[in-house]
Amino acid sequence: MKKILVVDSDEQVASILRLKLRQTGFDVVALGNSAEALDAIPQVKPDLIVSEMILPGQDGIDLVKRLKMNPETAHIPFVFLSSSRDVEKKILALSLGAEAVFAKPLFVEDFAESLKEILGGCESKSVPEEDENTLEGDISDISVLNIISIMLENKSSGEVEFFSSADKNGTIFCDNGSIVRVEVAGSGNSDGMEELYKILSWPDGTFSVNYGEVDVERNICIPQKKIIEKSVTWFKEYSEILKNLPPLDTVVYLDFENFVENLNKLPDDIGFVIKNIGEYGSRISEIIDACDGDRKLTAAYLKQLFEFSVLSIENMLNSCKIEVETPEIVEENKNIADIGKKDEEKSPVQKPDEHNEPERKKSGVVVKILVFIAILVAIAIFIYYRGLI
């Protein structure tokens, strides 16, 4: 007799399902929330789990994430019940490995037949042995923090590889539910927590879990509970700073004039951020990646540069290059033209030389170029003497 675990906080629905499914030949255990289900699964050993999507505490999505991340429960077929019309959640449930999502209210007889078909289909599936200890997914579906928590809860051993959309990759090594090492390719940082913060900051990408024994040199020595606490705190603070910045893919530019005006107000060590802002602008995500240090500090400095208008989303340098005639030059040319007209009326002999007009424009441009070069020299001297280059 196949055993089914029903997880639903509505006692009436759970009782009806338990009664009707037993009448169709199933052994049924009904529980009210995810926590009870996770505790009971090792003893119940269900052949299939039926869960309401909305549950108190951890919802059904969290439950299926934890089950699919655990090699001992990943094989159990999972079916969702839902009274919600949230299509995105249903798509997410299927992408996480759920066999089906059934809408409430149910015709129990038809539902029981569907469960038999799902169980029969799962039994006929042949899973290659090499895939049993491997799990892949998307960071947008299961966050890095979620993955870490599940590995610790399940006391799992193995390597979790992360691949960001910006072609960065890193690995978290777990031994019996303990994080022993974190490394990011090309970083060379010996501090495992700093490496972990980098992976936490990746907004999207994929992950791959390879279960098995690990034998690596430890670079994280603090208690596991402390690792989670520090990670959660860091991620919250980092996310809060990003809320005050434009989107990460925004190209930003350095405003030299405001930079010079606010030199004394900026921190001495902000130079590592300034140096990574290209002449033709850089994306915020590129600046954070290029600094390769404390990403939260880099984001905080970018926020400060925006507050002082040192950074902008407009290229002030190009505006300076394109603007040939300033309002003063335009006014001057207008006055010269008016004088020329009056002189021409009085005496044609006293008409100004037309060849002098381009010379005046040219001299105005030269002055602007000299001022711009002077600003650049001032910035270079400032950076040099504050030890930034």
Secondary structure elements and pairings:
Layout (H helix, E strand, L loop, with lengths): L2 E5 L3 H13 L3 E5 L2 H11 L3 E5 L7 H10 L8 E5 L4 H9 L4 E4 L4 H17 L4 H4 L1 E5 L5 H10 L4 E7 L4 E7 L2 E7 L7 H9 L4 E7 L12 H20 L7 E4 L1 H6 L9 H4 L7 E2 H8 L3 H13 L3 E2 L3 H7 L4 H20 L9 H30 L4
Parallel strand pairs: 1-2, 1-3, 3-4, 4-5
Antiparallel strand pairs: 6-10, 7-8, 7-10, 8-9, 11-12, 11-13
Structure description:
With 389 residues, the protein is of the alpha/beta class. It folds into four domains: 3-126, Response regulator (Rossmann fold), CATH 3.40.50.2300; 134-235, no CATH class; 251-318; 323-384. The chain contains 16 helices and 13 strands. Helix 8 (192-200) crosses helix 9 (224-243). The protein is elongated, with a radius of gyration of 33 Å.
